[in-house]
């Protein structure tokens, strides 16, 4: 729709900013369309925005003009903008903020110039010109900023202008360069032989067959529906996704599959590539901005059949969407915890409704919210109750650490049953997983004489001791301090390590099993690029006997040699001040247990705990999700927690403790005076459980009630009541997961 209005509405990535009106200069008359990116002036900067509408009249006089149009075709279609508007409305954010979260970084910034070597010039102006030209030809395409850093204070800009005039270098728009390159790569691929079976697809089990058959019509003809695929670990859910995607591909449509953290599942990518060779694009934060842009562009132009990605991929610019799959839909990494705090799974369902395609939410341990939706009929429940080839579920034993005299959690990390099972498994040549959801060597260092504990100076958190780096670290802000010999408080040499993490577990295992090949996977061992995949590949190939790790090892892996899983201390997640603590514990135990016995050999799981009577262990032990759900929802209903009531978490933070506290009290008072369409509870204000983070003090207010409209109305009032741009900032989190 090309029009010739005199003004456009542009969404710019600024907090709580509604779209702004800009004038259309004559030069751009008729060239702008909804969904194109433009460069616009905003205070004293120029920012990239997206055209979201047209206006004949401007509401105010003297508006500024659009500076430049960045696209020559529409990149963001109507359904995409609808999804963004929905998210802005629901998560109490501006459209610009949602666009900032939805678009890859390169698309959000003014595309920068790239300098490339063109040809040797006949003459050069001086030695600096020579040096700069040499640098460009040596480095390959580079940016003016990088050259300025290389030749500080020497007027590189003027040099580049001269070199460009002489034809020695070319200056070009980085994004346009990528577009051209991506276009070149989009060559028609030879059609696969008609009728050929998709590579390597197994014969489906009866249950898989039934699930696919019941979705057949939606997959062929489209139409919105949400299916909760509840299938035990190893029941072949991934195979169901693959065949559903294949069906959609045959209709000439594309599929989007979301996974918790894509880097954690190289196996899934292998399987996707195996089935859809050359037709898979991935989007996740581990890619460089240029890679991300390239994948994004291929998706936007329909060059792939399958898009896989982490939560932000819910905004992937797929045009002919025929299916959305959310794998491990219960996973907390779908929740964005900064900026616009959206939930990738929930937005996936909204997107399915907007475009009119089916959505599959898959899990062995569904979220209480999704299971409730399936029970109430909003979602359709489909189940896979057995592992493929009728393999047995792993046997789960609960070991009570309390009843073993002289063996507290701190000294004997491994109970006799776990230790002997480990030794036995090693002798059999099978693999063992050891899980503990805490990294580091000791949870903290404490003085045995005066009780002093090392704390982060920036956060109200104790520091975790890491032996390998002989330092203590803040796991929230990264603060590091070398280990002291003496207590800084009393001077005694009586510092003691308290608590334990995965590093300590690995250390103990090396002592106990000197012949075993032991690996560790946690954030410390995987910080280098590619390290995680390297560890996983050697685990997959059987080059490791024991793999120790945090929740990174609990997800999605399918390694046939694993027959033993040990959970060192299952309670760590139970004691958090979080109404989902039991759900999280049940899920992680079931998921990590599900890694065992996936091939011919049956699996065994040993769970060590100090509270063996807790209901989440009873139900996890017998793989009984419905019973867990029944017990859990009993508590939730009684206490008025989701899914029976809804929450909005409101936080104020700032550098001045008194101002934050006063601001929170004022806000709570003002909110209590609001007239509401339905009753709500306003809890607080109170200091957050983590009262200080990165030198900012934190207070919170919790809004709770049955009526979503009333909750959102109150959340919007909170936003209106706290002035923007002050040092005390407001954060609104709708359907919060992390309230620490
Ligand atoms: P889930 O995602 O439910 O944990 P997967 O899809 O990973 O399960 O399947 C578990 C294992 O069984 C995988 O190794 C997979 O290749 C295999 N598998 C899946 N479906 C079948 C089938 N119909 N026949 C044989 N093997 C299968
Ligand atoms: Zn800190």
Would you write up a description of this structure?
There is one protein chain. This protein is of the alpha/beta class and 740 residues long. It is 32% helix and 22% strand. The longest helix has 17 residues, at 657-673. The protein contains 21 helices and 29 strands. The strands form 7 sheets. A 7-stranded parallel β-sheet has the order 10-11-9-12-13-8-14, with helices on both faces. The protein starts with 6 loop residues before the first strand and ends in a 6-residue tail after the last strand. Adenosine-5'-diphosphate binds next to helix 9.
Brief digest:
This protein is an alpha/beta fold and 740 residues long. Helices cover 32% and strands 22% of the residues. Strand 10, helix 11 and strand 11 form a beta-alpha-beta unit.
Any idea what the radius of gyration is? 28 Å
Give a list of the ligands.
adenosine-5'-diphosphate, zinc ion
Question: What is the strand tally?
Answer: 29
Structural class: alpha/beta
- In which order are the strands of the major sheet placed? 10-11-9-12-13-8-14
How far is it from the N-terminal to the C-terminal residue, by CA?
A: 48 Å
Shape: globular
The pLDDT mean sits at: 87
- Poorly predicted runs are 186-198
Tally of helical segments:
21
How large is the share of residues in beta strands?
15-25%
Q: Report the biggest beta sheet as strand number plus sense, adding barrel if it closes.
A: 7 strands, parallel
How helical, in percent, are the residues?
25-40%
């Amino acid at each position: 729709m090309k029009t010739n209005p005199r003004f456009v509405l542009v969404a710019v990535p600024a907090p709580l900013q509604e779209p702004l009106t800009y004038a259309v200069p004559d030069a751009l008359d008729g060239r702008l369309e909804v969904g194109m990116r433009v460069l616009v002036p905003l205070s004293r900067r120029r920012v990239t925005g997206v055209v979201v509408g047209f206006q004949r009249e401007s509401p105010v006089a003297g508006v500024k003009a659009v500076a430049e149009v960045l696209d020559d075709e529409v990149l963001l279609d109507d359904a995409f903008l609808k999804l963004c508007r929905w998210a802005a409305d629901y998560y109490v954010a501006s459209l610009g903020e949602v666009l900032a979260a939805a678009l890859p970084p390169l698309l959000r910034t003014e595309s920068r110039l790239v300098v490339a070597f063109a040809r040797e010039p006949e003459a050069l102006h001086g030695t600096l010109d020579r040096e700069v030209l040499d640098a460009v030809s040596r480095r390959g395409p580079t940016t003016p900023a990088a050259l300025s850093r290389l030749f500080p204070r020497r007027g590189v800009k003027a040099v580049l202008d001269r070199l460009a005039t002489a034809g020695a270098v070319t200056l070009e728009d980085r994004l346009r360069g990528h577009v051209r390159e991506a276009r070149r790569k989009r060559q028609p691929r030879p059609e696969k032989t008609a009728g050929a079976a998709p590579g390597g697809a197994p014969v489906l089990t009866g249950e898989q067959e039934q699930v696919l058959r019941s979705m057949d019509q939606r997959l062929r003809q489209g139409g919105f529906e949400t299916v909760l695929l509840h299938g035990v670990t190893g029941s072949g859910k991934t195979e169901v996704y693959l065949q559903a995607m294949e069906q959609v591909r045959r209709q000439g449509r594309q599929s989007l599959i979301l996974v918790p953290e894509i880097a954690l599942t190289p196996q899934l990518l292998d399987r996707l590539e195996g089935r859809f060779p050359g037709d898979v694009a991935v989007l996740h934060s581990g890619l460089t901005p240029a890679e991300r842009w390239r994948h994004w562009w291929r998706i936007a132009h329909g060059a792939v059949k399958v898009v896989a990605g982490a939560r932000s991929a819910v905004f992937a610019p797929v045009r002919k969407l025929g299916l959305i799959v959310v794998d491990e839909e219960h996973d907390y990494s779908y929740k964005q915890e900064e900026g616009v705090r959206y939930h990738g799974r929930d937005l996936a369902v909204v997107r399915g409704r907007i475009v009119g395609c089916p959505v599959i939410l898959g899990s062995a341990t569904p979220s209480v919210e999704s299971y409730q939706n399936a029970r109430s009929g909003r979602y359709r429940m489909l189940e896979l109750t057995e592992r493929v080839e009728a393999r047995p579920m792993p046997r789960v034993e609960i070991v009570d650490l309390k009843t073993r005299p002289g063996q507290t959690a701190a000294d004997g990390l491994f109970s006799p049953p776990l230790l002997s099972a480990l030794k036995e498994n090693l002798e059999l040549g099978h693999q063992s997983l050891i899980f503990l959801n805490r990294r580091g060597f000791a949870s903290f260092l404490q003085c045995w004489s005066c009780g002093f504990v090392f704390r982060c100076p920036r956060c109200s958190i104790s520091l975790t001791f890491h032996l390998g780096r002989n330092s203590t670290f803040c796991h929230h802000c990264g603060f590091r301090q070398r280990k002291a010999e003496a207590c800084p408080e009393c001077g005694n040499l009586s510092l003691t390590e308290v608590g334990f993490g995965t590093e300590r577990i690995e250390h103990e295992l090396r002592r106990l099993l000197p012949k075993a090949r032991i690996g560790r996977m946690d954030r410390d061992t995987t910080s280098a690029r590619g390290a995680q995949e390297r560890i996983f590949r050697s685990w997959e190939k059987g080059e490791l006997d024991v793999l120790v790790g945090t929740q990174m090892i609990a997800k999605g892996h399918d390694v046939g040699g694993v027959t033993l899983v040990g959970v060192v201390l299952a309670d760590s997640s139970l004691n958090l001040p979080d109404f989902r603590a039991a759900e999280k514990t049940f899920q992680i135990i079931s998921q990590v247990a599900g890694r065992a016995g996936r091939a011919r050999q049956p699996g065994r799981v040993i769970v060590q705990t100090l509270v063996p009577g807790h209901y989440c262990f009873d139900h996890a032990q017998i793989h009984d999700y419905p019973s867990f759900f029944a017990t859990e929802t009993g508590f939730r209903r009684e206490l008025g927690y989701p899914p029976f009531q809804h929450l909005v978490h409101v936080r104020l933070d700032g550098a001045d403790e008194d101002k934050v506290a006063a601001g929170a009290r004022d806000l709570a008072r003002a909110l209590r005076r609001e007239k509401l369409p339905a009753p709500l509870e306003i809890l607080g204000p109170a200091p957050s459980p983590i009262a200080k983070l990165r030198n900012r003090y934190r207070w919170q207010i919790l809004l709770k009630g049955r009526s979503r409209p009333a909750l959102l109305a109150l959340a919007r009032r909170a936003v209106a009541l706290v002035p923007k741009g002050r040092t005390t900032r407001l954060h609104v989190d709708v359907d919060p997961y992390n309230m620490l």
